[in-house]
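I have been asked to look over a protein record a colleague put together. The record follows directly below this note.
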Amino acid sequence: MALRRLGMLNPNKTLFLLCDVQEKFRFMNQFADFAKNVNKLVSFSKIFDIPLIVTEQNSAKLGKTISDFDIGHAKGVFDKTKFSMCIPEVQQLLGDYKDVESVVLFGIESHICVEQTALDLLATDKYSVHIVADCVLSRTLTDRVMALDRMRSLGCFITTYENVIFKLMKDKNHPKFNDVRKLVAETSCDTGLFPTSSKL
């Protein structure tokens, strides 16, 4: 429990939630770079056998999860109308992973579905919640930044996909290090959270 409060991640006690990264959202600013970052976490979950749960918001209108991702290993892909991912089907699946202490949450939109999912997870008092800042997106930067600030103040750990990957891998001598190294060989794509001007 103490390690959970410090934001540490144990691969045997961690689960990934991918929230609503669907075809109709491709219009968003920074979407292509965001999707590249997300794809690295999705791929990592397969390499490391981290349970992955996926939701799709009103998929009849907004489309399925983008084809860029291979989510064939996901433990479940669930359609929903509720903004939070914590629908009964997801809650039941979460309950099957009784050893899970940490949830890594990423997707769309930061200030709506991601934030409401984080609130529901925190309310259970069962999990530390890690929000991957370079793997969440909103239509506006203001909403994204404010959502990250609110979620931090509520007790979420605000992190990046590389931070998550290396916390879970822990050691260069891990047998899957070479597979993972291919994912992080190229640095995180800029998703617009911070100014890139050399004057700053």
Remarks:
- DSSP finds eight helices and six strands in the chain.
- The longest strand covers residues 128-137.
